[in-house]
Amino acid sequence: MKRFGSKSRPILQGLAILLFSILLLTGYQAVAFNGILQQTKTGEQVDIQVPPPPLSEDYYPCTMCHADMEVNLERRELVEFHDDIVLKHDEENRWCMDCHDANNRDMLHTASGQLISFEESYKLCGQCHGPKLRDWKAGIHGRRTGKWNGRKEYLLCAHCHDPHSPEYQKMKPEPPPKKPGKIK
Amino acid sequence: MKRRTFLKAAGITSSAALFSACVPKEAREAFLQKDFRSLSKDEVAGIIKRLEAQYTQKFGKPFSVSAKEPIPETSFGYALDISRCIGCRKCVYGCVKENNQSRDPQIHYIQVLELEKEKGIDFMHADMYYDRDEVPHEGHFYLPVACQQCKNPPCVKACPVGATWTEPDGIVVVDYDWCIGCRTCMAACPYDARQFNWGKPHLPSEEANPTTHFLGNRPRDKGVVEKCTFCIQRVREGRYPECVEVCPVGARKFGNLLEEGSEIRYILENKRVVILKEELNTQPKFYYFYGT
Q1: Is residue B100 part of a domain?
Q2: How far apart are CA B82 and CA B271, in angstroms?
Q3: Cis before residue B136, ω within 30 degrees of 0?
Q4: How many Cβ contacts (< 8 angstroms) between chains A and B?
Q5: In-domain check, residue A25
Q6: Which residues of A touch B246 (CB under 8 A)?
Q7: Could you tell me if residue A175 is inside a domain?
Q8: Which of A39, A134, A143 would best serve as a mutation to test chain B binding (most B beta carbons within 10 A)?
Q9: Is B26 part of a structural domain of the chain?
Q10: Distance (Å) from the C-alpha of residue B28 to the closest C-alpha of chain A?
Q11: Residue among B135, B199, B261 minimizing CB distance to A39
């Protein structure tokens, strides 16, 4: 498969970094990343960085193909493409366009039709998983890295859950400890 | 020469003059070192310099040993989401790497217990040696246990020489130079959280973490007790402990109990929280909670 978008993403990232450096240099403290802001004890706002969504370069931007394609809203088995996507997420009641936007394939949309970017996919999830989204914003569901008293990084829901089949994947554990035996 | 070996030797010769005459200057300084808490700033600086040189030479790469003091108005707390942990043991090995534990003999600060969902938290049926192809294993849940950083720590009370104590930020630490290796603290700990260097620790140079703290992950010697310090070398710099960052499911939470709105406070205020062996009144600052 041709690698779409492998050129434009680094540029976008570069721009984001540049913008961020400017904000830093100007001493702007309350930088909103994806609208997530946290208040600390002293009232100052601590920003949280979210790494880019885990989209594969083969697929993004979606409009590379979809801009000139007919929209097919019919629920069907996808054969020509995306045959690797298996819906296992309340699939009886769900189809692609519940989450993806038919007219702008680079965007997602909420039930009310509001467009949201892949960077903000948590807003989509939060519509049906309200309590999880609330815990995620508080730093309880999901994972934060960085500083407990400063800048944090956060993973999107999609970093841990495949939106199409969100059950957390089992994994092989690291080896058990050695049983106490001979001491050298 | 170590303090305990010398104490033995001194019993036989009982001669300070002999000591200063036949022991090299470095070792003499190490022996005469006071316990960490009664050292002046200058003395600490001197000791740190000596240790840095010693480790740098031993491991063939530049080591730093910090003596960074607690951040004011900080009391650390830790919370672990029992409903999230899948028992993958990534924390166990992340901890070993960060904290320079001996690889052989093997020292782990974190023991991950596998428990049966039906029986709940029941240590009689806990297995720390589980060896599965995949986790989580059907019908089981996982409970990682390390130092609980008790507010009322039996280990500290048990130590006959004051080599372990609670820092103002709540971290229970060990002065490895002052520890005499009697292991009374280990017997006193109801969580099996303290580990003893029975053998000469083996830490391969290429795996050694050169960023250390005096009261934390600096390399240890044979015959001393060690344990989790919440990664004192990281958390006093404002960073999260290593286990928090390596946990793939995000089950581990850390922060300042005194800071309103912190993750840890949110958990204590909004989630069902349990502590281990509450009846012993050890008052852990390590909380287990149900995130679901």
Answers
A1: yes
A2: 12
A3: yes
A4: 112
A5: yes
A6: none
A7: no
A8: A143
A9: no
A10: 28
A11: B261
Q: Are strands A152-154 and A45-49 parallel, antiparallel or unpaired?
A: parallel
Q: Which residue has the tokens 């294993």?
A: B137
Determine the structural domain holding residue A134 and report its residue range: 8-69+78-168
Q: Hey, what are A46's tokens?
A: 């601590």
Q: Which helix (H) or strand (E) holds B49?
A: helix B41-59
Per-residue pLDDT of chain B (292 residues; tens, 9 = 90+): 455 554 444 444 444 444 555 566 666 666 667 788 889 999 999 999 999 999 999 999 999 999 999 999 999 999 999 999 999 999 999 999 999 999 999 999 999 999 999 999 999 999 999 999 999 999 999 999 999 999 999 999 999 999 999 999 999 999 999 999 999 999 999 999 999 999 999 999 999 999 999 999 999 999 999 999 999 999 999 999 999 999 999 999 999 999 999 999 999 999 999 999 999 999 999 999 999 8
Q: Does A182 reside within a domain?
A: no
Residues of B in contact with A174 (CB under 8 A): 88-90, 92-93
- Within 10 A of A148 (CB to CB), how many other CB atoms are there? 24
d(CA A103, CA B57): 65
Residue A1 has pLDDT above 60, yes or no: no
Whether residues B89 and A160 touch (CB distance < 8 A) is answered with no
Q: Do B267 and A140 touch (CB under 8 A)?
A: yes
Asked if the structure places residue B115 within a domain, the reply is yes
Side chain identity at residue A49, one-letter code: Q
CATH number of the domain that residue B83 is part of: 3.30.70.20
Residues in B touching A183 (Cβ below 8 Å): 105, 198-199
- Label residue A33 exposed, middle or buried (CB < 10 Å: 0-12, 13-18, 19+): middle
- What's the complex ipTM? 0.86
Residues of A in contact with B238 (CB under 8 A): 147-150
Q: Do B240 and A144 touch (CB under 8 A)?
A: yes
Q: Which two tokens stand for residue B160?
A: 């006959």
| Cis ω for the linkage preceding A53 (within 30 of 0) | no
B56 lies in a domain?
Answer: no
CB contact (8 A) between residue A138 and residue B263: yes
* Residue B240 to residue A140, Cβ atoms within 8 A: no
Within-domain flag for A98: yes
Q: How many domains does chain B have?
A: 1
The boundaries of the domain holding residue B285 are 76-290
Q: Give the burial string for B93-108 (b: 16+ CB within 10 Å, else e).
A: bbbbebbbbbeebebb
Residues of B in contact with A41 (CB under 8 A): 259-262
- Determine the Cα–Cα distance for residues A59 and A87; give it in Å rounded to an integer: 17
Counted domains in chain A: 1
Q: How far apart are the CA of B135 and the nearest CA of chain A, in angstroms?
A: 6
What DSSP character marks residue B178?
T
Q: Which residues pair with A116 in a beta bridge?
A: A108
